[in-house]
Amino acid sequence: MKRSIASDRVGIAARSLILAAVLIFGAALQAGAQQITRVAVLDLSRVLAAFPLDAAAIKNFESRKAEVQAAVDARTTEIKKLQAKKADAENSGDFETSKSIDQDIAKKTAELKDYAAARQNELDIMAKALSSSVSFLKKLNAKIGQVAEAEGYTLVLNSKPDQSSGIVLWNSSAVDITDKVIQSLNADH
């Protein structure tokens, strides 16, 4: 029985098509078995800048935080200058002056620690008040989640994180492995 070249080509093309379909189907099954994490970024500072009236309390907090940091930096610089003076006094053999400066350094360091602790407590209280009372933040978090889910993202990161806002702004429960880690730890005990 003789086959034509054209029928051989059709047979090869059909087998190739079937093989391609099987490979695509297999890849689709494997992709379905693995979770694909899509990550988005959000510039939170730009969002807040776009809503100045809603973000006034947040901006006040940021302003106060900057003031506190400037005061801490100034006091730290003053202590460093005293440390340099102390080193100069020791190098020149003036141990009495060195001892006096050392006492000033200890006093100013203790004052700085107290100041920083008090201001951090103040900022923590302000941050808690913001997160619990500002409806704008709740609305913002809800919108981040809605947009992320609609676009198929499982994780939204802050593109410019700072001390007042973390890196992760939103995550899907699908990427939360807390329960699995707890189960694994319980299994080990």
Would you give an account of this structure?
The chain folds into three domains: 1-34; 39-52 and 135-189, no CATH class; 55-133. The protein is built from six helices and three strands. The chain has helices at residues 5-33, 44-50, 56-91, 95-133, 135-151, 178-188, and strands at 39-42, 155-158, 168-171. The longest helix is centred in the middle third of the chain and has 39 residues, at 95-133. The chain is elongated and about 70 Å long. The protein starts with a helix and ends with a helix. Mean pLDDT is 79; it is low at 6-10.
Overall, the morphology is: elongated
Helix content: over 70%
Count of domains:
3
Strand content: 5-15%
**H/E series:** HEHHHHEEH
Strand order of the largest sheet: 1-2-3
Structural class: mainly alpha
Helical run tally: 6
Main sheet characteristics: 3 strands, mixed
Mean pLDDT: 79
What is the number of E strands?
A: 3
**End-to-end distance:** 72 Å
The rounded Rg comes to: 31 Å
| Low-confidence runs of at least 5 consecutive residues | 6-10
SSE blueprint:
Layout: H1 5-33, E1 39-42, H2 44-50, H3 56-91, H4 95-133, H5 135-151, E2 155-158, E3 168-171, H6 178-188
Parallel strand pairs: 1-2
Antiparallel strand pairs: 2-3
List keywords for this structure.
3-stranded mixed β-sheet, mainly alpha, 6% strand, 189 residues
Brief overview:
The protein is built from six helices and three strands. It is mainly alpha-helical.
